[in-house]
């Protein structure tokens, strides 16, 4: 029998697809919804190739309340949601903030209302280290703990912050209302997962990040340089006060990140904590130059780069204090940066067109 049944919004995207994989491997049943804005349905077949299980899938926009209602009606077994569906390009969020508020905030509101109607009471939310903003303004808070004051510095970050507040208010109110009615209310729970920088792919080489437009993040851009889609990497600033002048981030293997979601969901369902935030990061910072060196090593040759001005909104150091996730969830990252780079290269080299090409023969004939 299944451990439980989960609706995964944005489940065909990068982190959502790996979390679906981890949920299926842990014995959960999964129903995915996605509008395929930044992903492809092909990933579902890849998940099936790896796990032998096929998640249910519906094309659905998270802002479409009636459609969400009809999916919850069809799947009364669902008791939890992991909510990934969102727009995530920081730069674009400064140009089109209302689009970001519409999908990320109104979409989350619509989802919470539909969950409420259908008595679905646990939610794990994809938040982001970006909610901390420039944590270096609190020098005693690097690496960053969850109780560091929040202060997003861009509209994308503001949407994540807003949704964290909305979920917190909602869950607290549901619990208080239940208590007033003489019930425990302990079934209402939320995990706010603040991810640092996701990295890597599946070691099989058949699942990975497949951004549909121009990528924004360091590793997908480096991967494009490695396959010749891009002439060189621009290093955004070498005048930071780090050991080599480039900015420091905490890169976490996608397999560890997705495992954290399953543990968080297990915790919500068994320990009933109410609302809890957890950082998911390794606690180890790497500079941009260290990342170029690590990925170049995986590729087997030096990758060209050029120093450019700092990118607006970037900060010196975003590194997690992940002690709370370790203590409460029993979560520790198991995969190294070297593995993340090797896995990313295997995926990129084998699938230069991402999911728009067939998986390697040995997988199809299995
Ligand atoms: P992604 O773009 O690969 O996945 C998001 C998925 O949501 C995509 O499949 C997209 O098609 C879908 N989607 C977008 N708008 C939708 C809508 N209106 N209705 C239904 N589906 C919609 O991104 P990802 O990297 O997997 O990120 C997943 C979540 O994690 C997002 O909420 C993102 O903000 C958050 N996050 C990402 C990172 C990162 O660096 N990748 C870091 C921190 C937090
Ligand atoms: C990493 C480092 C860049 C590209 C963003 C969001 C954050 C989260 C993860 C969603 C930085 C440098 C990058 C390039 C470079 N996403 N860089 N040249 O900015 O840490 O975080 O993605 O929630 O919210 O802000 O990640 O991968 O863009 O950058 O030098 O072409 O690489 O300056 O120091 P970032 P990133």
From TrEMBL:
Pfam families: GDP_Man_Dehyd. This is UDP-glucose 4-epimerase. It comes from Cryoendolithus antarcticus. Residues 7-343 form the NAD(P)-binding domain. Mutarotase converts alpha-aldose to the beta-anomer. It is active on D-glucose, L-arabinose, D-xylose, D-galactose, maltose and lactose. The keyword Isomerase applies. One of its GO terms (cellular component) is cytosol. Homodimer. The lineage of its organism: Eukaryota, Fungi, Dikarya, Ascomycota, Pezizomycotina.
């Amino acid at each position: 029998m299944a451990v439980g049944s989960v609706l995964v919004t944005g489940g065909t995207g990068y982190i959502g697809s790996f979390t679906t994989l981890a949920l299926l491997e842990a014995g959960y049943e999964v129903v995915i919804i996605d509008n395929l804005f930044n992903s492809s349905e092909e990933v579902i077949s890849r998940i099936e190739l790896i796990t032998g299980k096929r998640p249910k899938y519906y094309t659905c926009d998270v802002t479409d309340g009636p459609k969400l209602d009809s999916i919850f009606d069809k799947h009364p077994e669902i008791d939890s949601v992991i909510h990934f569906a969102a727009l995530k390009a920081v730069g674009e969020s400064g140009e089109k903030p209302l689009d970001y508020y519409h999908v990320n905030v109104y979409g989350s509101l619509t989802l919470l209302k539909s969950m409420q109607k259908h008595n679905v009471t646990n939610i794990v939310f994809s938040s982001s280290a970006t909610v901390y903003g420039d944590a270096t303004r609190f020098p005693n808070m690097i690496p960053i703990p969850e109780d560091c004051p929040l202060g997003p510095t861009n509209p994308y970050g503001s949407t994540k912050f807003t949704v964290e507040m909305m979920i917190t208010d909602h869950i607290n109110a549901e619990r208080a209302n239940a208590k007033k009615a003489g019930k425990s209310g302990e079934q209402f729970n939320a995990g706010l997962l603040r991810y640092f920088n996701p990295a890597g792919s599946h070691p099989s080489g058949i699942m990975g990040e497949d951004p549909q437009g121009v990528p924004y993040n360091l590793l997908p851009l480096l991967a494009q340089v490695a396959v010749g889609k891009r002439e060189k990497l621009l290093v955004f600033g070498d005048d930071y006060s780090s050991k080599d002048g480039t900015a420091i981030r905490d890169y976490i293997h996608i397999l560890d990140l997705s495992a954290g979601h399953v543990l968080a969901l297990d915790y919500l369902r068994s320990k009933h904590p109410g609302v809890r935030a957890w950082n998911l990061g390794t606690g180890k910072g790497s500079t941009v130059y260290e990342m170029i060196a690590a990925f170049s090593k995986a590729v087997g040759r030096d990758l060209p780069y050029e120093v450019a001005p700092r990118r607006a909104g970037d900060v010196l150091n975003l590194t997690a204090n992940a002690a709370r996730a370790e203590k409460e969830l029993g979560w520790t990252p198991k995969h190294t940066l070297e593995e993340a780079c090797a896995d990313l290269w295997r995926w990129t080299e084998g699938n230069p067109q991402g999911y728009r090409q067939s998986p390697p023969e040995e997988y199809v004939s299995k």
